[in-house]
Amino acid sequence: MLPNSKATEIIDKYIRKFLEMLRTQEIKDIHSNGLLELSKNLIDELTSNEIDMLVKTDDGTYTLKSEDTDELMHSRVGALTEGIEKFAIPSMVEMRDSCNILDLCSGMGYNAMACLSKNKNCNIDMVEISKETLFLSLCLDIPLKEHELIKEAYFEFFNNFNDIDIDKDIDKDIDKDIDKDMVKKESNSKREFNGNIQVFNDDARVILQKMPNNYYDIVCHDAFSPARDPVLYTVEFLDLMYKKLKDGGMVISYSSSIPFRSALFEIGYNVYEGVSVGRKRGITIAFKGKPIYHTICNNDNAINENKLDKNENDNHNTNNNCELQRISEVDERLIALSPIGIPYHDEKLDKTSEEIIFNRDIMRDEFKNNLSIEGYNEHNSYIYSTKRIKSGKIDEKLLKIQKNSKNSVECINLLKKELFK
Ligand SMILES: C[S@@+](CC[C@H](N)C(=O)[O-])C[C@H]1O[C@@H](n2cnc3c(N)ncnc32)[C@H](O)[C@@H]1O
Questions:
Q1: Ligand 1 centroid from CA 291, angstroms
Q2: Ligand 1 shell residues, CB under 6 Å
Q3: Average pLDDT over residues 81-110
Q4: I need a surface site. Which of 142, 218, 291, 421 has the fewest CB within 10 A?
Q5: What local confidence, expressed as pLDDT, does residue 157 receive?
């Protein structure tokens, strides 16, 4: 899914003007008067009553409407607040000496600037399919000084294709050499910023395949919701991401969707629930291997998994400042026992959202049919409605498995085994 086409058509008009002004040197850098005037006109047009595409969130920062106007690019709580509270703080980026961050679906760059505000020694790869959201960031006044670093990176990105006719469909030119799309912010290293920002304007499924393996410490996964746009929530895409993570590397997503968490478990991530910001459910935090900087709460006790390895009895640490929770019992049961737990698939990383959703619906029907084949499961005793799975009114044996399992991975595997035995 993309930002709303009514908004992107207007922004395209301004990109054309911007490129022309770069050519004529009326705009030379992010502080040029020409850009300030262009920005004011763009924001006025997008916020006008007639267009109404740019929305002010509760913290005063802006977000865009998406193609489905019911879904904004950020929650009402605040675009910048989300970047700080859902991504930068839970990533514990400030604890790290240096780190490689993948800002997936970088849009206006809120998550990247939030991470930079906590730690200047980051290398950030920003991947975004819509050049319009990148341009919009150049025109916004976001009250965080690290926004300037993002603006400079985005400015250079547009500077790089000022000789390309914007009317051509440059977004779909996926064969172009990746180096042409990336911008090294060497100038930044002269100042307090020690890292490197690179901008990639293409489908994340294409870009990620070209990235090195075992490279990222943190992935800020900020795609639109999986129910509407599952392309970046499929088993195959998340598996590719797993390969790109270092050991101990983490993926953070605001989404707590069951098929998304189910896919993460299937691949082998260690999946936890983080804080909740402006929603009932917590964010999803998934690790390749064990967490290095985070503490895990379990049954009211905080357990540091590294400690657990050394001494099984040392698991009654009463520190309540833990950042990760085991996912809820209901979620574990839904992932293991319900067709809701069937994840999305995109085998060749090229399907549309509609195809992915359609194929999952077929798999959900197959799951139900498998369980109801006579003789497959003698008394069909494990076929439960979602309501019963949620309320826990299911066979005692299954509940016991859940109660006795040490963690979600063990629990989900054992429940699945019991269901299909
Ligand atoms: C929820 S918004 C993310 C907001 C963003 N993090 C920010 O700070 O503004 C989702 C973004 O994902 C982008 N997107 C959608 N599909 C994509 C894909 N396949 N690859 C890369 N970006 C994609 C959209 O254009 C949109 O900007």
A1: 27
A2: 1-3, 73, 105-111, 127-130, 133, 203-205, 222-224, 231-232
A3: 96
A4: 421
A5: 94
How far apart are the C-alpha atoms of 315 and 306, rounded to whole Å? 10
**Token reading at 355:** 């195809």
Closest residue by Cα to atom 10, ligand 1, is 223
Three-state DSSP at 193 gives coil
Q: Which residues of 23-36 are buried (b: 16+ CB within 10 A; e: fewer)?
A: eeebbeebebebbe
In the CATH hierarchy, which top-level class contains the domain 5-224?
alpha beta
Q: Quote the Cα angle for 404-405-408, to 5°.
A: 145
Q: Which residues pair with 286 in a beta bridge?
A: 251, 271
34 Cα to the center of ligand 1, angstroms: 28
Extract the tokens encoding 415.
């429940």
Mean pLDDT, residues 28-48: 96
Task: Report d(CA 361, CA 352) in Å as an integer.
Answer: 14
Q: Nearest C-alpha to atom 4 of ligand 1 is from which residue?
A: 107
Domain segments of the chain as ranges: 5-224
pLDDT at 306 over 80: no
Quote the ligand 1 centre to 415 CA distance (angstroms).
35
DSSP, res 224: S
Tens-place pLDDT, residues 344-360: 999 999 999 999 999 99
Ligand 1 atom with the shortest distance to the CA of 130: 25
pLDDT at residue 168 is higher than 80:
no
